[in-house]
Amino acid sequence: MAYVLQIDFKMLGPFGDEMAEAFSDLAKSINEEEGFMWKIWTESPETNEAGGIYIFETKETAEKYLDMHSKRLAGFGITDINVKIFAINEQLTKITHGPLN
Amino acid sequence: MAYVLQIDFKMLGPFGDEMAEAFSDLAKSINEEEGFMWKIWTESPETNEAGGIYIFETKETAEKYLDMHSKRLAGFGITDINVKIFAINEQLTKITHGPLN
């Protein structure tokens, strides 16, 4: 059963095209993580926040990624992160066209 | 440009199949909301939390839905919600296969 990992944190930038350029290699590497299905990259230049919505195949792979990613963020000086891991109600998600494949 | 609305809150249930049964009509109605693209329904029976990850076509339609939905949640007795609206970095999201269509 798929799980959601939602993360956000304060970040002073870069955003937009500069963010895409800075993190494109990182993005490619995320595709190789165990259990990874997809990620939507979130950003809010107005409030200096960024983050991501990830889907992993299992709770264990979501937790393993979070552990690694938390350390990576700390390496960027980002330590105060909001994070939740959730199960997915698949029946309701199917009704509202949530993409899980 | 699409926007993410992420919401979560404390909830004592129902979860799983009972949640799906309780909220299936609500789920169908969400499909009719202005600018709505999709929603993943999140739940965590272990921590008594639930919520959703939504994609809306614009920031304005996300904000409009949030305003309505906050009042609806308050009607269920849920007033302490964590909520963020984010823009999406489409270039990075494309690399990591984030589904925006």
UniProtKB/TrEMBL annotation, chains A, B:
Gene Ontology molecular function terms on file: monooxygenase activity
Domain of life: Bacteria
Pfam families listed in its UniProt record: ydhR (PF08803)
Keywords attached to this entry: Monooxygenase, Oxidoreductase
Gene3D superfamilies assigned: 3.30.70.100
Oxidoreductase found in the keyword field: yes
Record keyword Transcription regulation present: no
InterPro entries xrefs: Dimeric_a/b-barrel (IPR011008), YdhR (IPR014910)
Protein name (record): Monooxygenase
Species: Ectobacillus funiculus
